[in-house]
Amino acid sequence: MKTTYNGLIPSIILGVILLFISSYSIMAQTVVKGAVYEQKSDNSLEPLIGASVRWANAKSGVLTDTEGNFSISKKPENHELIVSFVGYKTDTLMVHTTGFVKVLLQVAGQLNEVTVTSSPTNIDRLNPIQTEFINTKTLAKAACCNLSESFETNASVSVSYADAITGSKQIQMLGLSGNYVQTNVENIPSVRGLATTFGLNYIPGTWISSIDVSKGASSVVNGYESMTGALNVELQKPDDSDKLYVNTYINSFGRGELNINTARKLNDKWSVGLLTHGSGQSISIDQNHDTFRDVPLFGLATALNRWKYQSDRMMAQFGIKGLYENRTGGQNAADFVNKPYYEFGNRTKRVEAFAKIAALFPEKPYKGLGFIMNASVHDANAYFGLTSRSYTGLQKTFYSNLIYQNIIDNTNHTYKVGASFIADSYRESYLDSAFHRNEIVPGVFGEYTYVIPEKFTLVLGGRMDFHNLYGNRFTPRIHAKYDLSSNTHLRASAGKGWRMPNAIAENFAMLVNSRQLLVLDQIRPEESWNYGASLSHDFKVGTRNANLTLDYYRTDFNNQLTVDMESAYYIKFYNQRGKSYSNSFQAELNYSPIKRMDVKLAYRLFDVKNDIVTSSGELALLPKMFVNRDRILVNVGYATKFDKWKFDLTWQWNGKRRIPDASHEHVQTIDSEPVYAPAFSNINAQVTRGFYRWELYVGGENLTGFRQSNPIMSASNPFSQHFDASMVWGPITGRMVYVGMRWKIPSKV
């Protein structure tokens, strides 16, 4: 389908004008209320008067009143609430949304020792949406070079290579690919469209201050594209970051990187920060000797400059980010003198700018008005095998959101209303086919929250979006949380999500083979319903803290873009025929058996199926390709006093998964026997030694050395009809070791 740009620029200008009347995401302060008590031996509660309550990294906080109550303003980046009182053990809670927090402080055994404790799990206690919080401490358990490598100790999100040549990585949540997860950076949808291919690699780990992992239907405030969950990445802020932070990394495969972050407070209101990252792979590796590089060579440079203004009644942030990457995969040209060889190349240039403005009301912290605006240009060029087999993609996006928040009578009744606007221009071409379209989507939304403190929270939300190509679309969502007790929380959610797929950019792995691509239908928006429930229970084993979380989610598609790989000669794209669904169950136990040790045990079960059109035209309901049914994760972390030494070990067991039948004589019928890849284990470990202002860390990944023996079919003849590098189900490389260093100058120095 071809479209032109003639109407795009006037539409964007019109959209900007409309946005100042109505448009983007929340930047306003909210308020968290609660009470601090001491629990007596008879289980009675005594209010603590004058206890200190503050956010981590904040210079000041509030004190509890004569009844132990407190009220503290919360900014979007505030998550860790620290409660302390002389003679009592300090407690740190993970708090993401408004609501009532009950804090029980324990008498300290020794008054000259301050002990900071936290829940063994980072599940948000107040949020009615099932949300897990990943902080910098968790990220430091692994090398975490970029966002795609930030989930090694997380059971809800899994990451794997999409193919054996490009180095593209994909995430899975609730049994479905990351295309259905709305990935935001500070509430701005970021990894979407053409950025889906390598976007996870483009957010350096050292830039990240925290990640929120939300399962199921997310808030309508952030858009309509969340279908199975949402990731929100918070970056380092210039007003509360280290003056200087340096991280270096190098591994045994020849990959190295350097990260330098700086921040400075210019005065009481202004601060500025600069985040930089450079990385590259300089050595060709071919561990299975099939003449193909196991990992592509690449060079990546990116930088973000951001400014922040903060006063009592206004907060503003703005910045600009630039990125350039060049990567080369496939066979090494030096090994094929005067002979044809298979090579993959990709060059990406990306520029984006953002601005955030919020009106604050100190006398009414529950009230706020916020506006965010983001503009980006993503330019990519690639070739596969021969330079003539090329792909070009250009995406221009303007995105904004305006939101107003207030209460109805009291803070038990709050609401958010606003409007959003997004304009996407896509120009893609592959071989002799062009895929051009302009999407313009203004929308309005509203969300109402009802709270019975310490008992029940209900969130009702809905949005109406007006798509210039696919008409008006209504997106309803509902979330509820019921506190069975102070330690047991039941959550439930249901909601609709939809998105417009980008068949080529989101399936780069399908281009590194000799199969012919067939687009059988005019692609329509994908649409699904997601509903589920979770139960979280905090308890003690002896005197040690533990937490058990159980959750179940189901996703039903009304329409899904089917990527049919059943034939050895074709890859077919067509709109959903028949059924497509995903069932996900997860059980996770977090336990602290001894002081300064955390243990995580998790089991995950997926049942993901969709109807495939067989060779005879019948529908066969088959398990989704490359999705393992079972997964077990065990993570153990231990730190000595003052974090002088830290030890982390992660073991994953991945069950079998269905893969395409490699036989070229195979004919798909409704009775065809599925082919499965074997189960395998993976072990990662890291040891960190802390010094005065720096840390030295050394670790290893895939320590079992397991790897898929032949990830590339017909590697010896890459221009034959049997060549296929897209059938990756396990590790491509064997054991890898790395070493790195972190050094910082704190902001208070």
TrEMBL record:
InterPro entries: Beta-barrel_TonB (IPR000531), Beta-barrel_TonB_sf (IPR036942), CarboxyPept-like_regulatory (IPR008969), Plug_dom (IPR012910), Plug_dom_sf (IPR037066), TonB-dep_rcpt-like (IPR039426). It comes from the Bacteria. Gene3D superfamilies: Carboxypeptidase-like, regulatory domain, TonB-dependent receptor, beta-barrel domain, TonB-dependent receptor, plug domain. Signal peptide: none annotated. It is a multi-pass membrane protein. Keywords: Cell outer membrane, Membrane, Receptor, Signal, TonB box, Transmembrane, Transmembrane beta strand, Transport. Pfam families: CarbopepD_reg_2, Plug, TonB_dep_Rec_b-barrel. PANTHER family: HEMOGLOBIN AND HEMOGLOBIN-HAPTOGLOBIN-BINDING PROTEIN 1-RELATED, TONB-DEPENDENT OUTER MEMBRANE RECEPTOR. Belongs to the TonB-dependent receptor family. This is TonB-dependent receptor. It comes from Flectobacillus rivi.
